[in-house]
Backbone:
């Protein structure tokens, strides 16, 4: 057996030029054929039952929109809710209380704006708008 391997090794060592290229191509094509044959003949089987993977989308929260002038209110009026702004109409009547996580209400204080956000309640059961976005409106429009 060792002499057979040695002889085969010696024969492969002696391959040169065109004979070497032909041998490599034949070996490549034979392995390619065997791989395709195995992949074609192997039947795919299901080992486990498939489960229905239904992805539930979170319910879309509808944003409410209000227009008016942003007016500062003392936080002492609503100490538990940390509300410092209200939206008022041009006559000065309150439309809704405003609350935001950042400084967007401070920036637009005194301007005529359209605010979009989610409606919530204060500790005294008044409506408050948790502002998501603010659009500055031109008064002449």
Residues:
């Amino acid at each position: 057996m060792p002499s057979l391997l040695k002889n085969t090794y010696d024969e492969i060592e002696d391959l040169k030029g065109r004979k070497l290229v032909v041998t490599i191509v034949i070996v490549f094509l034979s392995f390619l054929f065997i791989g395709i044959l195995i992949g074609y003949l192997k039947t795919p089987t299901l080992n486990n039952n498939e489960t229905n993977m239904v992805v539930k989308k979170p319910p879309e929260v509808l944003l409410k929109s209000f227009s008016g002038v942003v007016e500062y209110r003392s936080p002492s009026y609503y100490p538990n809710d940390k509300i410092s702004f209200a939206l008022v109409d041009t006559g000065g009547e309150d439309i809704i209380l405003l609350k935001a996580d950042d400084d967007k209400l401070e920036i637009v204080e005194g301007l005529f704006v359209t605010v979009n956000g989610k409606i919530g309640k204060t500790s005294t059961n008044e409506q408050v708008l948790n502002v998501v976005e603010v659009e500055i409106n031109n008064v002449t429009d």
User: Anything to note?
Assistant: The chain has a mean pLDDT of 85.
